[in-house]
Task: inverse folding
């Protein structure tokens, strides 16, 4: 600042006041000019001090609300721009744009740090081949897109955030995530509130995105113990976060549709998870969840055909046969697991009870045990903030000349549908390998041995076979 003033004095010297007709500067004029420069210097110093204080206040407010661009912890998801807040650059204008590269996509921010914006995308392409079934119609080789998503996310200031995504899989257009949110602190704890079309917070894999599950398909707990409306519903959700736990409560209707002639179903869903042990090398996960759904008159049919050996074989399902007259349902489940260094293990179980007018309740029971480990030494991709799986932090990306990350997985799962008697049941044993080329690109190979025993439909009685699924994915 003093150097600046010196420069001002030198620059001002030629224009100091002079006596008319004289080339000499009077002492009085010189003193007046110096006094004016000193006044300007004091004003500049006061402004600099005030700007510094305001910047420190902004930093103090933002720091506890929004974490760094890469949240701390052994495993992290791709950058969440709605949660990441840039510290304003002194002198930057609101119209200036800062650009940085996140996990597979650019992140744009206004120069003053108020606005952020990031494109989102998800491409999951599968090849599936089944054989060994006693029914030739089940021995199929097919291709499909598990997800073809495009969307945006962003934030306005430290509190307001939003997200929107559409899915184009199977040549259709579906609105999936679409919400407006607000985050802050209460009693020293982080919280957020979201309003819109919301993804379920339900179970470990039931609350994990399709691009982050360790297997090509979620467990039967995640696919069968579910509200009739599915994975999404329009409503409101509140979440509260502690240092090693979180809890959520959701009230929603149906997902995005055009059925406006009847009432929506109403679903209340709650979940909580806790990490009683949480270190850099070890995490223990405990969770519980439940929902209650009052069904719309338009949703009285609750027939289930649940995936057991792969999504892209339409005949390979555990089926109930026709079930009508449903008025509501209740579901609940529990989770237990964790990781140690590069190894992880998780177990889930759940039950769904559907109330049928004039009939016994229809019951769905499911459980699964799964495990895995990174032969390349990465920490398992578990997110302790939300209690779900995410994408791993790859130590040696192929983009940097490394081999990426290699994970071996195994799972056993079982599902049974019951009313007055057993309607259908099945189980599957899966082994797999995941090769993460970098933090947002993955190749998957799953080998599944499955068994079904359906009492109705086209494929009745006991049947066994094998399915091999190969997936290529990019997610950002």
Result:
């Amino acid at each position: 600042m003093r150097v600046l003033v010196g420069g001002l004095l030198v620059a001002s010297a030629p224009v100091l006041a002079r006596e008319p007709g004289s080339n000499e500067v009077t002492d009085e004029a010189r003193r007046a000019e110096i006094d004016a420069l000193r006044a300007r210097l004091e004003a500049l110093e006061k402004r600099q001090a005030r700007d510094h204080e305001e910047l420190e206040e902004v930093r103090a407010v933002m720091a506890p609300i929004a974490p760094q661009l890469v949240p701390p912890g052994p495993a992290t998801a791709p950058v969440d721009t709605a949660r990441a807040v840039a510290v304003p650059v002194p002198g930057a204008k609101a119209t200036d744009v800062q650009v940085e590269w996140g996990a597979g996509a650019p992140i744009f921010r206004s120069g003053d740090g108020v606005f952020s914006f990031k494109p989102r995308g998800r491409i999951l392409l599968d090849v599936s081949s089944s054989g060994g079934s006693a029914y030739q119609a089940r021995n199929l080789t097919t291709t499909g897109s598990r997800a073809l998503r495009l969307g945006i996310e962003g934030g306005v200031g430290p509190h307001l955030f939003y997200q929107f995504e559409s899915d184009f899989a199977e040549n259709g257009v579906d609105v999936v995530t679409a919400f407006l949110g607000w985050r802050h602190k209460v009693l020293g704890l982080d919280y957020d509130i979201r309003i819109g079309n919301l993804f379920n917070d339900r179970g470990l894999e039931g609350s994990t995105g399709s691009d982050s599950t360790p297997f090509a398909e979620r467990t039967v707990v995640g696919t069968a113990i579910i509200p009739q409306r599915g994975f999404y519903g329009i409503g409101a959700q509140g979440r509260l976060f502690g240092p090693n736990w979180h809890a959520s409560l959701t009230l929603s209707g149906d997902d995005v549709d055009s059925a406006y002639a009847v009432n929506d179903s109403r679903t209340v869903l709650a979940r909580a998870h806790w990490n009683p042990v949480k270190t850099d090398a070890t995490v223990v996960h405990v969770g519980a969840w439940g929902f209650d759904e009052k069904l719309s008159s338009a949703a009285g049919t609750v027939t289930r055909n649940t995936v057991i050996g792969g999504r892209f074989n339409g005949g390979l399902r555990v089926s109930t046969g026709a079930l009508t007259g449903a008025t509501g349902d209740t579901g609940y489940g529990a989770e237990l697991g964790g990781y140690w260094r590069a190894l992880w293990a998780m177990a889930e179980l759940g039950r769904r009870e559907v109330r049928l007018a004039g009939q016994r309740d229809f019951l769905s029971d499911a459980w699964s045990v799964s495990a895995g480990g990174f032969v390349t030494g990465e920490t398992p991709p578990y997110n302790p903030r939300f209690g779900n799986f995410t994408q791993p932090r790859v130590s040696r990306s192929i983009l940097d000349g490394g081999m990426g990350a290699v994970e071996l997985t195994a799972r056993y799962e079982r599902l049974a549908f019951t009313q007055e008697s057993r309607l259908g049941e099945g189980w599957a044993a899966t082994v797999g390998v995941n090769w993460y080329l970098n933090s947002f690109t993955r190749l998957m190979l799953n080998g599944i041995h499955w068994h079904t025993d359906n009492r109705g439909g086209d494929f009745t009685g006991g049947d066994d076979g094998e399915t091999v699924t190969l997936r290529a994915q990019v997610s950002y």
The chain has two domains: 2-62, 66-475. DSSP finds three helices and 22 strands in the chain. The longest helix spans residues 27-65. Residues 104 and 461 are 47 Å apart (CA to CA).
